[in-house]
Amino acid sequence: MKNNLAIIIVTYNGSTWIKKCLASVFRNDPTQGGYDVILIDNASHDGTADIVEKEFPPVAVIRSSKNLGFVGGNNLGIKEALRHQYEYILMLNQDTEVVSDFFSEIIKVAVLDHVGIVQGMLVLGDERSLTNNAGNALHYLGFGFVKQYGEPVERWASREPFEIGYASGAALLVKREVLEHIGVLDEKFFMYHEDLDLCWRAKLAGYRVMLAPKAIVYHYYEFNRNKEMFYWTERNRWAVLLQNYSAKSLILLSPMLAATELMMLVYSVMSGWLGKKLKSYVWILAHLPQIFAQHRRVQLSRTVSDKRIFKTMDATFTMAGINNPIITRVLNSLFTVYFAIIRII
Length: 345
Hints:
- Helix content is 45%, strand content 19%.
- It has two domains: 215 residues, Spore Coat Polysaccharide Biosynthesis Protein SpsA, Chain A (Alpha-Beta Complex); 118 residues, no CATH class.
């Protein structure tokens, strides 16, 4: 096992998807240097690992005795790939299918100057004329969201690769040199915002994060909005902010962060998620030593200022399906003005 590209697929009860996913992988055109597949099964109880070992013998299957989450599972595969010195490591969701030239197209972008991370063009698996994710937006207050959802794919067919806020972990390629420089995924997160954090750290180290419009991957995406998701995203959002911003930026942003936090508390009460929001505070307080230790590591190794990172961030919320005039007009105006002032300072 040693080619140029390692494909990491984490499975959890993925018997519905995994055969389609792996079949599409092995239909792919060989990249220069070839590729290997490493599959980490997060203690599935539906026979996912057995299916893979029986029907796809070339796949290296690593069985975890417990569910390590998206982050822990991927890190298990990433560390194995780093041990074997692959040049490129691709994280791929179990509920995806890649087109026949996906690997060659995404690597074409990865070899461009100063590129460290590349996302493939995620297209809705059940509506293949529409986009799922053409790069995530990174809001300066730590929120991550998809702007280009449900848009005609044909609009993107002629686009050249471009920089994005951060890449989705559903189809994320990262160079080995980047991981050796900034480290692997942060296992405190377990799931949600781990891709945002990785891309932010890569940018601080001077790497570009790009979208490859011609590297098409079909994603059988189902939006999941529940109270547990609110807990994970809110606690991890604060961890990302505290770890990656400089102390000066955190001080300058503190009035808007405080105001936004008050709004999130009100929202959590109105939506019945207050318990999850308070639980996220407990987690942050309990993990402050680890968060501050990571903050020191990030700040010591960074080569890029926050002012430069601001250029790749969003000041407004422009998520698909958000039509609330309070958000689209009032709050976005306030966020934009404040961000403009901070960037000048």
